[in-house]
Structures are given as C-alpha cells and as structure tokens.
Amino acid sequence: MSKRTSLSLKIFVSVTFLLLVGTAILAACGSSSSGTATASSSSSTTTQPSGSNARSGPAAGGASGTVSNVSTSGFTLTTATGQKVTVDEASSTVYQNGTSSTSASAITNGESVLVLGTVNTTNGTTIAATQVIVQPTGSDGSAASSAAGVIPFQPGTPSTSKQVGQIPANYSQGSGTIVSGTTANKATEAALAAYPGGVVDRVVQLSNGEYEVHNIGVNWPHHVFVNQAFQVVGAN
Questions:
Q1: Residues 6 or more apart in contact with residue 179 via CB below 8 angstroms
Q2: Helices then strands, each counted (H, E), the chain
Q3: What is the average per-residue pLDDT within 116-139?
Q4: pLDDT average, residue stretch 72-90
Q5: What is the number of domains present in the chain?
Q6: Which residue has the higher pLDDT, 126 or 10?
Q7: In a domain, 92, yes or no
Q8: Strand duo 151-152 + 100-102: pairing
Q9: Could you tell me if residue 102 is inside a domain?
Q10: Could you give the CA distance from residue 212 to residue 154 in angstroms, rounded to a whole number?
Q11: Which residue, 83, 82, 140, is CA-closest to 111?
C-alpha cells in the first residue's frame, strides 16, 4: 500500500468517526430538548378550583310577581323588577286566594301571586313551591315596587348604600342561623309585601331573635329586617 493510499484511508476513517460522533451528540440534544419541553408542558397544566356556594345550598324563601307560561308542572313568575323565576309545582303544593283555599286551576296567566318554597339559584332561579297565594292585582307590580324604593338590578351598576329604619344592634352580615318552615314563610311574606321585586333566597334568625331576609335580584334592598312579630323594621 502506498503512502498516499494509507493517508487517504486514515483521513476517511477520521472523517467517518467525526460524523458518527456528531450525529450521536445531535440525537442526544434533541432527546433532551423534547423531554424538557414535555416536562414544561406538563408542569404548566393546573387544576382550577371549583366555585363554592356561599349559601351552602337551597333554602326557604320566595318571590311575588305575575304568572306566565302555565303548564301542568309549574309556571314562570316575573317579579316587579323583571326577574324571571321558574316555579315548580308538586302534588303537595298548597294554593290560596287571599286567606281562602283554592286549587291549581286558580293559577292562570296574568295572575298576581306570592310563591313560597325552596329557592335554588344554582342554575338560574327556581322555586320548588310549597305554597302559591293569589294576590290582589297590582299589589306586587312595578308601581308598588317603585313606591317602596326598590332599585332594580342593572348589570355593572354597584349596589346602593342606603339604610332605612332600624338595623339590629351588632348586626354582622353572614351571621345567624338559616330558618325554614312557617317561620321563614312569614318573614318572607312580610319582606316581599314591604319591598316587592326581589327574590328571597334565605331567611336568617339573628342573635336578638329578629330575622334578616336576604333579597337578591335587586340593587336595593339586599337585607330586610323583620322582628319577632313578623313586622318589617328596617332594610339596607
């Protein structure tokens, strides 16, 4: 073998070796980069916490307004401020016309009614009605609501800071015990008679024995205070 041939062979072997080493290094870098990208993508995925209901579930309350869309299982109630409420009726639902007993047939489109029952705001506003009471025409309409000073809800408009009457001493929002049954019904009825237009989604008994009726769907009032004789004494 000549010297020139020997030199060419050595150069060929050296170049081939360098190419093989370079290919291996590039492959390793690509694998590392891919692994880093995968890890980065994985670490950026987080589980968002689910929302919670501060009311801790449906509670006794109610609403008053005008009936529409009557069916065999319920109807739609539109409050004086335009809030839409789905009312679900059951075989156990009690019907009254004023203080007299009546039947489900008395609930017709255009009728003014007060609905008492379990209020659920998880998906829209729904009331599982325990009691439906036909009201005098106009008693819970927009004119009555406006006269009472109720401020309808408007998206983007902050709540009105206003206090009327007596607020229980040492009152703290969120305090008290949620009540149900006849007690909640009487407090709800009193609050809606004084301030028609909202939806009562819970009634809370305070430490002094009085009640805070929580009113939603309006900008004011959010809290109506009712004494132990079920008379409205204040609102804010």
A1: 60, 187, 203, 204, 205, 211
A2: 3, 15
A3: 93
A4: 97
A5: 1
A6: 126
A7: yes
A8: unpaired
A9: yes
A10: 23
A11: 140
> For 20-45, what is each residue's pLDDT tens digit?
445 444 444 444 434 433 333 333 32
- What is each CA distance from 88 to 24, 54, 131, 158, 226, in whole angstroms? 72, 24, 11, 31, 27
**In the structure encoding, which two tokens stand for residue 73, read together?**
């299982």
For residue 196, the enclosing domain spans: 59-138+152-235
Strand pairing class (94-97; 126-134): parallel
Q: Can you say whether the dihedral through the CA atoms of 234, 210, 66, 135 is positive or negative?
A: negative
Residue 40 lies in a domain: no
Which residues lie below 8 Å from residue 138, measured CB to CB, with a gap of 6+? 112, 144
- Chain segment 150-183, per-residue pLDDT in tens: 999 888 877 778 899 999 988 998 899 999 999 9
Closest CA to 133 of 181, 189, 85, 179: 189
Q: With 0-12 CB in 10 A as exposed, 13-18 as middle and 19+ as buried, what is 10?
A: exposed
Cβ atoms of 66 and 112 closer than 8 Å: yes
Return mean pLDDT, the chain.
81
Asked if pLDDT for residue 17 goes beyond 70, the answer is no
What lies within 8 Å, CB to CB, of 84 at 6+ separation is 76, 77, 78, 124, 125
Phi and psi, residue 188, nearest 5°: -65, -45
Is 123 inside any structural domain? Answer: yes
Please compute, for residue 123, the number of CA atoms within 13 A of its CA located in the half-sphere on the CB side: 0
Residue 7 has pLDDT above 90, yes or no: no
Measured CA to CA, the distance from residue 197 to residue 141 in angstroms comes to 8
Give residue 36's identity as a one-letter amino acid code: T
